[in-house]
Structures are given as C-alpha cells and as structure tokens.
Amino acid sequence: xxxxxxxxxxxxxxxxxxxxxxxxxxxxxxxxxxxxxxxxxxxxxxxxxxxxxxxxxxxxxxxxxxxxxxxxxxxxxxxxxxxxxxxxxxxxxxxxxxxxxxxxxxxxxxxxxxxxxxxxxxxxxxxxxxxxxxxxxxxxxxxxxxxxxxxxxxxxxxxxxxxxxxxxxxxxxxxxxxxxxxxxxxxxxxxxxxxxxxxxxxxxxxxxxxxxxxxxxxxxxxxxxxxxxxxxxxxxxxxxxxxxxxxxxxxxxxxxxxxxxxxxxxxxxxxxxxxxxxxxxxxxxxxxxxxxxxxxxxxxxxxxxxxxxxxxxxxxxxxxxxxxxxxxxxxxxxxxxxxxxxxxxxxxxxxxxxxxxxxxxxxxxxxxxxxxxxxxxxxxxxxxxxxxxxxxxxxxxxxxxxxxxxxxxxxxxxxxxxxxxxxxxxxxxxxxxxxxxxxxxxxxxxxxxxxxxxxxxxxxxxxxxxxxxxxxxxxxxxxxxxxxxxxxxxxxxxxxxxxxxxxxxxxxxxxxxxxxxxxxxxxxxxxxxxxxxxxxxxxxxxxxxxxxxxxxxxxxxxxxxxxxxxxxxxxxxxxxxxxxxxxxxxxxxxxxxxxxxxxxxxxxxxxxxxxxxxxxxxxxxxxxxxxxxxxxxxxxxxxxxxxxxxxxxxxxxxxxxxxxxxxxxxxxxxxxxxxxxxxxxxxxxxxxxxxxxxxxxxxxxxxxxxxxxxxxxxxxxxxxxxxxxxxxxxxxxxxxxxxxxxxxxxxxxxxxxxxxxxxxxxxxxxxxxxxxxxxxxxxxxxxxxxxxxxxxxxxxxxxxxxxxxxxxxxxxxxxxxxx
Length: 819
What we know:
It is a single chain. The two termini are 70 Å apart. Helix 5 (441-469) crosses helix 8 (539-549), helix 10 packs antiparallel against helix 12 and helix 12 packs antiparallel against helix 14. This protein has 15 helices and 48 strands. Mean pLDDT is 76; it is low at 1-45, 413-434, 438-484, 706-711 and 790-819. It has 819 residues and is of the alpha+beta class. It is elongated and about 110 Å long. Strand 47 and strand 48 form a beta hairpin. The protein folds into five domains: 8-17 and 310-439, no CATH class; 30-168, Bulb-type lectin domain (Agglutinin, subunit A, Orthogonal Prism), CATH 2.90.10.10; 176-304, no CATH class; 446-575, Phosphorylase Kinase, domain 1, CATH 3.30.200.20; 582-808, Transferase(Phosphotransferase) domain 1 (Transferase(Phosphotransferase), domain 1). 46% of the residues are buried. Strands 1, 31, 32, 33, 34 and 35 form a six-stranded antiparallel beta sheet that branches. Strands 2, 5, 6, 7 and 8 form a five-stranded antiparallel beta sheet that branches. This is Receptor-like serine/threonine-protein kinase. Its EC number is 2.7.11.1. GO terms for molecular function: ATP binding; protein serine/threonine kinase activity. It catalyses: L-threonyl-[protein] + ATP = O-phospho-L-threonyl-[protein] + ADP + H(+); L-seryl-[protein] + ATP = O-phospho-L-seryl-[protein] + ADP + H(+). Residues 50-171 form the Bulb-type lectin domain.
C-alpha cells in the first residue's frame, strides 16, 4: 500500500521541522520472548477438546475449551505475580499464555473454585465457589437454551439456534484487537467499541489508557489517557492513516475504514493469516503490533517510541526532537506562552506568535497593511482540529486567507484541510506531510526579500571571492582549475537537507565551522561544511579549499560535490563519510576495537597514497599543511580519505619550498622548520604523516603526552622507548599479535624516520610507501625527532609580529602574537 506522503501543510515562520519519526523496524529477540511469555501468566492444562459451553457442560477451574481449529483456548488463568483467577481467552499454539480477552476484569476470583457456565435464562456467567455471579455477559434479551462457542477468530459468541448471535466478546474487547474485530463509534448514540489497557501486567482490571476511533470529519485512531488524547494516528485518507510512516509495511496493510449508514464508523484489521498477528494496548499506553512465528511473539510495530510521540508534548506551535535538550522548542517567529513553565520542563502551554496576523491587527484597530501569506513547513502531521474542504489547493488557500480564524491549510490529492483554532492544535511531532501556516506580513516580506537578495548576490559574491583568492597562488596554476565549473547548491535546498542545520545533524566542528549531515531529495547523503561567522577562517580559506580540491580526484581524497555562496552564507558540500573521522575511532576505547592491525595498516597505506597523489601525481602540486587524525575521514569500509584543504598551498613546478609569515596548522603535527620559521615543503606533510603513523600504532593522541614530565609528545615517548630497546611498548595492545610484530616494528621505524628534526633527513612520500611495502628492505637508523624533551623555542630570527593560525585540539584559531 502506498504511503500518504503527498500531504502539504503550511506555517508562519522561517523554520524547517525535523523529522523526528524514526523508521520502526522489526524487533526479534527469541530468548527474551520465551522469558516474557513464561512469566506472563499461568494457564492450567486441564480440559476437553470441545469448543462449546452449555448449561449442562460448563467449564470448572482449571478446565478449558479449545476452538475448532485449535487457534484459541478459553479457561481460567492467573497473571504473573498474582494468585487471582480470571476467565480469559489466549492463544493455544503460542508458548506461554498470551491473553487476548478477560471476562471478570474488575472482579477476580480468590480461589480455584470458579465456574464459567450458561444460566437458566441463557446468560453467560462466571460464578465463584459460593455460586455467586461475579461477572455476566451484557445481554439485552436473553434466550433460554443458548450456548457459548469459541471461534477460531478468538471471538466468544453466545448464540441460539433460532435467533442467532445474542452476544459476542468482540463487542466487549479487553486490551487486544484481533483480525476481523471491529473498533467502532456511533455518532448518533455515542456508543463506542474500544480497547482498554490493563492496570498493570499483573492486574487485568481497566487501566488509565484506552484506544479507539474518533469520527466523523477525518476519522483517526486515538489513544486516550484518563480520557485526554495521548497519541493519534493522523487522519484516514481512504487508503492509510497519514500520520503513521510505516503504513506501507506488510504488517499494517490490512486496515479498512467503513462509514456505516446507521451512524456507525468501523475500523477493521484483516491480516492474510488471521491467527498470526494482533494489536495490544499495554499498561504504559503504547499500542504494539505483535506477530507470531514458530510459537513465539515478536513486536513488529509500536505507536510510541519517544516522549515526542506523546500528543501535545510541546503544546501549540511547538516542535519536539528527542535528540535535543530540552526536547521542545518554538517555531521561528513564536515564543513560549509561559516562559517560567517552559524553563521548568512543562511545555504543554506551547508557544504564541510574536506578531499578530494582518487580519488580527485590523480587528483590533491596528494598521491594515499588506495581506498575510503562508510559509511552508515540510514533514508535518495535520492537526486533529481541522475543517474538511473538497476545494482545489488554490481554492483551499484562498478560503483560508479570507477567514481570519483559519491559521493554516494542508492539501493532499483528493483531500483538503483547513485548520481552525490554533490553541487546540496538537504539537506536530509525527512527520508525514507539509503544512502552510499563516505568516505575519512583515515576516513574510522579510523572508521573501532575503531569498531574493541571496539569489541576486550569490553570483557576485562568488566571483568576488574567486578574485579575492587568486593573489594567493600563481596565475598559471589557477588557470588549471576552473572554479566556475563547480556545482552551486541552493541555500534552501541545503537547509532542507540538513533539517535547518539542526544540532542533531551536526557531525563535528573545525576551524572552518560546523559540519552537518544532510540528505538530498534524490536520497544522496552529503556532508555540509558551513563557514561560521565567528570562525578565524574566512573567505580566503573558503575559496582556497574550493580551488584546491575542486578538480582533485583520488580514492583517498574526500570528494567535493559543490559549494553554496548566498549572502553571508558560505558552504562546501562533500560526499558523506558514514564513519566520520579517524580520531573518532582511534581514540575511542570502544570503537578502537574495530580497528585491528590489518585495518590500521590499510589506513596508513591509504593516507600515504593520498599524499603521494597531492605531492606528485595530481596536476597541481599541493602541500596539505594540516594533516591530522581528525582530517582523515573513513568511508563505510573504513578506507581513509584526506579532507580539509582550507590551509593547503599549491606549489609551482619549480618550487621545492615556500616561506610564510602566516603559519597555519595544528600544534604537535607541525614540523619544526614550519612552526618556528614559516618554511614548508613536502617534507612538512611527511612530518605530520609520521606523527599520525605513530598515533595509529599506539592508539594514543600526540597531545596525551603533552604534560608528561619526561617528554612533551608522542615523539619523545617513542624515542625514549627506541633508545631503551623497548619500542614494542609503544604498540596498542588492542592490535598487537606476534604474527604482525615485524610489520608493526617496520612501521614504527618509518614513523620515526618521518619525524626527524631536519627536513633533509626525512624521506619523501614515495620512499615512505616503498618502505611500508618492504620494497626497501634495509631502513636507515632514525635520528632524534624534533620536539622530544624540550619546549618549542621562539624564532630568534624574527622579532616582528606575524600572523599565526593553529588548530589546537582540532579547533582552528587565529591570533597575533610575538615571534
């Protein structure tokens, strides 16, 4: 069955609502299921094979009857942790006792002397040991000589040969909906057939939760708590309940809603195999769909997953995200109705507009001004207080504008809605469509103006920034990169893809600014790097990264998909790396276990191949200048990709090194000649690679040694172990195996050769790769690394102030200080 995702709904503020419905998967835990069903109740196995009760053939505790096809059993049981006795119906072929209906819920038997029988006047009754009636079927007109039969549907019917069915348990359900059962509501009489929860797992008496249908405008299913809405399904659109994302699931495709001629509305559920599934309302207020397989039960769907699924959790004009703290927030353009309660975690009073709508200002004597408009909010559930309209979408919009009490409209093909009193609207937390809600004139005007301004200025700004970046490089090198060919992304598209750059989508932060996970309409996942206004980096670093990486293609370099420049917004769009960065694995005590030696060696080799491409094999010779663990991303197979080229430099064909007064990079990874004198070359990246290699082998951050009294870095620690002939102590115990010892020791040797103090002593990347592959068997003895047991001295040759930029703890800062 097709999901109803064509729904459109509109709202008055610049905001993009998060989809907080998570896809509900099938949970299967057989061993736990066994435990639960064994504890659930105790059902005695003593009875007959008949499926019928008569006045002469009652059921005496612990007797039972079984339906004709052996699907269900009717008898006496005790819930877990209870000695009370109840008459109930449960599955016959499921391990344990899965009760689906209880007769004497409100009045249990205190002993095992109970009897289920037919009275002389034809009423089904439960009697105690003193022959007192403790429960009886609600029969309007009893008929003598009637009999009760348990059907294979789980329905217990009281019938008589001439008059047919007199009473049936399906009309008086407990907490369970079985296939072919009907939930109903009569708009004329007010009579309802709905399920009610147990008070607790050990007490079948009626609890505080109930579940049924709410007709007649746009029928939907509700869960009520003490009579107040607790959850709702969203309206029925003649095919599905549009507020349930999983309605296209094979388990949820058997629903049908019928508008009866007698004022009755019926909801039926018919699964192909009627004996295999059922819905139950538990004592905590959650409706769950359970599926039987191989004699056990699995929960394959549930109505509520988080607090955000609760009806009205954040009040009117509030939105809920379970990953946020606090979980509730107001739409843009709105503010908490009661700030004191809001700050205390009581959000039910919701939010109110900061500015009146135009029609409200006219009615209160304010300025008339321009007409109100609508603002679009995607992925919303239609409020339960709606006015149905059969008009077209445009007509629906016009009707809402003409009616000051209409604050929003929604439209789906074949179904139109107008939303009335906003104070009664539930918090929109379940996400299935798009809402258009009235927006105050000046907010709408400002919003539209900003959009037009962004689009108009985007091209000018991009061209300006391209020109601004050019003096940094040689013109002949820039000619090799046509920046204008880089795809431009629309700001609104990126905002939508990242749920308005929501904190829950933030992958991390760097000197450039935050990086967000996003998903394009075509399903492609992306990483959006957004320039922070407070960042020490700016347009130069932004354009530098665009120029450097736009035409680079290598399996070990992250791929740039495009950029966005609109107004003050500057963003880079990359391919999404599901495993984030190397440091997130390497320095996490739990995740590092996933990096065995073979994976770590593959990462080392991959980084080396990426560097070789930058230094020698690409059409531009590029020095990265900020190689570190957080700038190495990992794809789903844990293959490394070098990222973050904001500080990179392009070298001309005749250049071997360069000087700068603007030192950039990260302490601990910077070579001594670069950190102290501003000189950088390929050997600067080799030094950073050596530090990174030692981190990968040891599983420890370079900075974790920073305050050690004996050595200020991992280099000093490794050198100390080398001189003591105890270098094996450097190896992470998580990866050490005797069979890999020689290969790991060779990698340590290579790492120490890369971090030697003088650049001339370090190998090139091509030599490094040959060493790692054992193509060069005899390695030279490494000389003392830089930065071992001494502090970094100030540059004695430079007494002037130079601009220095460093990434400290993976956060780039820029400052002016003496050198």
